[in-house]
UniProtKB/TrEMBL annotation:
It comes from Prunella fulvescens (Brown accentor). Gene3D superfamilies: 3.30.390.130. Belongs to the Deltex family. GO terms for molecular function: ligase activity; ubiquitin protein ligase activity; zinc ion binding. This is E3 ubiquitin-protein ligase.
Amino acid sequence: RGKALQPLFKMSYSCSKAGDPRPGYPYKGGNFCAFLPENKEGLKIAKLLKEAFECGLTFQIKSCNGEEIVTWGPIPHKTSWDGGKARNGYPDAQYLHEVGTIL
């Protein structure tokens, strides 16, 4: 595997805003972890993912069984070192290129 970057996002409880499923209602946060290889391209993607997070593009709020929860947004993240593309993991030879294009 080599060295890996592990961005960790901690989202706490808060109230949703305009544009969310139920503005003004509280939502449940969570801990989210994603993996990137520690190489030149991985570091470049990490910077772009940080910018996306700061712009509010990394997560979204969804209604699930009557509760508002934070989930991953439209930007794909690798949440496992294994399992391949189908399980949001590695190996996935195209991931860094694909997410770079999206970002």
